[in-house]
Fold this sequence. Notes:
The protein is mainly alpha-helical. The protein has a domain at 17-46. It is built from 2 helices and no strands. It has helices at 17-23, 31-46. The longest helix has 16 residues, at 31-46. The radius of gyration is 18 Å and the shape is flat. The model has no long low-confidence stretch (mean pLDDT 78).
Amino acid sequence: MNSSYCYHLTPKIAKISKAQSFVGYAPTNDIYQGMEEAIEWYIESIGN
Length: 48
């Protein structure tokens, strides 16, 4: 890999305004609640 090549990474934030206006989508959970539910589901799933 060429050491002079630099990766430029920029953080991405989901913008849901198009989805809201186009299909009427609106999230029901915030990111923290969603992550908590996903982690709980994952722990329960691997336990079986």
